[in-house]
Each structure stands twice: as C-alpha cells, then as structure tokens.
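Response to reviewer comment R2.3. The reviewers asked that we include at least one raw input/output pair. We reproduce the pair for Citrate synthase here without editing.
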Amino acid sequence: MADNPTKGLADVVAASTALSDIDGKAGRLSYRGYDIHDLAGRTSFEEIAYLLQRGALPNRAQLDAYTAELAEGRSLGPLAEACLGAIAERQEPMEALRSLVSLTGADDPDKNSNAPEANLRKAARLTAQQPILVARYHAARTGATLPEIDPEAGIAEAFLHQITGRRPSQREIEIFDTCLVLHADHTMNASTFAARVCAATLSDMHSAIVAALGTLKGPLHGGANEQVMRTLEAMDPRGVARAVREKLARGEKIMGFGHRVYKTEDPRATHLRRMSQELAEASGDDTYFRMSREMEEVVFAEKGLYPNVDFYAATVYHYLGIPTDLFTPVFSISRMAGWTAHVIEQHADNRLIRPDSEYVGERDKKWLPIDER
Ligand code: ACO
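Raw output as returned:
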C-alpha cells in the first residue's frame, strides 16, 4: 500500500487563523503578531487570553474589566457541583475535566446561544473555570480543604496556592504565569483542530472544548508532559544515557521530543529549560534537571530531535509542587485561551470541515445471504 503523503494531515492547511503563527525552520512563534519571546515573562496569562479572545492586548481599563469578568466566572454551576464527588472518585484527571466542562455547559447562562457576544462571555467563563475545576477536583479526591484565595490574585497565583496549599513566592507566580503564556495557543495542533472541527458543524462552545480536552489527553499531544516526568522518575540518574539508547533501540519514542512543525528548537522550550534550571537550583536538588539535560544531549546525538514544549514543562511543574497527574490538566488551563479563541474565529467565517479519505479496502465483492457465508 503506497504511503499517503498527507497521512496525519502533515503540511495540509486546514484553516485560516489570525491567532498564532509558527515558523518551524526558524523556531519562531507569535500570538497575533507578537513574538513569544517578547510576551513571555512580560505579559500575564490574563492579557494573553484577552489578546487571543478579543483581538488586541488590553489597556489597563480593559484588563481590569476582563479580570472582573473572570472573577465572576469562577463558579462551577449546580450540576458540576452535584457530580464533582463521584467524578473525583471514579475518573482520572483528564477524564474528569472532560466530564466537568460538559456539565458546566448545562448551567452556562449563554448555553442556548452561539451569538458572537455570547461566545465571548463563554470563552471568559471557561478560562476562569478551568483552574477552579482542576483545583476542586484535586481537593475532592484528596479530601483537602482549599485555601481561600486572595480576590486580587491572578490565575497563576490562585491556582498554585490552591494546588500546593501554600502561598507561592513572587518568582514562582511569575514562572507559572509564563508557563501559562507559553502554552496558550499553537496554530493547528491536534486539540485545536478537534475544537474547530466540532465548532464548524455550528455546535456549541462547550462541545468544542470537550472535543479538545479529549484530544489533548493523548500521550502524543498534551499527555506527553506527564509521561516525561514518569520517564525521569523511573530512570536511574546514573544510567540516563544508556536507558535512552535502549529505549531508542527498542523503537520506543522518547516523550517530550520531536514536533510535527519545528525542525529546530521550539522557542517555548528555550524559556522552559531556563525556568527549570532556576527552580532546580533554588530547590537544592537539581537531579531531574541534570537528567533532562543529559536526555536532551543523547536524543539529539542519536536522532537529531529537539525537546518540545512538554519536555521542560514537566520539571518546571514538578519543582513548583504540582502533582504529576495534573500536568496535562495544567496544559488545558492555558490552552483554554487558544481553544475558545479558535471556536470564535471558526464561527466568524465558518465552513463545515469535512476532508476526504483515500479508500484502501476491497472493491466489487459479491454479497451472500447469511447462511452461505
Ligand atoms: N522519540 C523517538 N523517535 C521519534 C520521536 C521521539 N519522541 N519523535 C519522532 N521520532 C521519530 C519517529 O520514530 C519517526 O522515525 P522513522 O521515520 O524512523 O519512523 C520520525 O521521527 C518521525 O516521527 P513521526 O512520529 O512520524 O512524526 P510526527 O510528526 O507524526 O509526530 C510527534 C510528531 C507526535 C510530536 C512525535 O515527535 C512524538 O510522538 N513525540 C513524542 C510525544 C510528544 O512529546 N508529544 C508532544 C508533542 S508537543 C504537543 O503536542 C504539545
């Protein structure tokens, strides 16, 4: 069977977007024309969510109004509240989020509208709710009582405080906020594409986000950050190079490496590596960071592959005190900004997304009655 050159839709332009752009050869990423290197560390996640969803970086008054809207959207709604305990008992984190987002949709005040203004409000509510869903789920499954969050706290500070149970330092808040900025949007990645396919049927915002969450969950996409940490935890720190070579020799993929679009270093990985090193050194135990550096060298020497966004995100989240099985949910907190903006963009200039397939099965077969088969 001849290989389909567009298998996995590689290099197929599936939508037009003004949200983000990648130059895979130069290793550049921009959000609405702003280079990620100019945004990271200088712009809050809330500003980036506003930029993506509403079209421009906010001024002070616009940001104040948007953060007030986010603060109002922090509740779960009665149906999600009622089901939270059972979900926390029975479902893994990404499954739980898929369920909870679906349930919050039932109580969304704009649930019956796909109008542009309604979708802007839903986008803000979903962005505000996602960190709360993760924190509430984690508290429900561990029996912890969530600390009261400072009403002035931004998403990064409030989430770190609720998940770790301790007040994060100013530098930890800045680092986590930068992580959220770095993960907010990334052109036609698998989960965004799933959201756009769903939105293009003129389905609603919550359905599109549920499709995106199910897609982010997989280890070839957002699930890779958790797998990176599991790989590091399972390795002997003195046997990193050998373990990596053995995995490659067995034909296994090394999680956190390789990318469909980047043929050089992923610009997000540059920031995440630096932040991982800073946190590792501050923690007094940089073992995982040193192991990561060694993995990076071996994977590049053996396969010529660079780390992607998930590789150093894993150790950054680890050093920040986030439980490993919440790494992919953390990705979803950030990517909610991009997914919702893509749904809005899709609805603004919609056409059903319906690609073709190449039939490779048998033809012209003779039908037989059931007793003659
Ligand atoms: N480890 C080892 N080999 C790899 C890796 C890896 N991480 N990634 C790619 N390769 C190899 C493949 O085995 C293949 O080799 P071959 O041509 O000899 O068969 C070649 O490089 C091309 O790989 P594909 O999987 O065909 O590339 P594709 O563009 O389809 O996949 C992907 C990209 C899914 C990211 C891939 O690199 C991968 O599986 N990486 C590991 C999972 C991961 O980190 N995912 C997160 C991606 S970033 C994100 O989604 C947020």
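Residues 8, 189, 220-222, 224, 253-260, 303, 305, 308-310 surround acetyl coenzyme *A (CB under 6 Å). The mean pLDDT is 96. Further pairs are available on request from the corresponding author.
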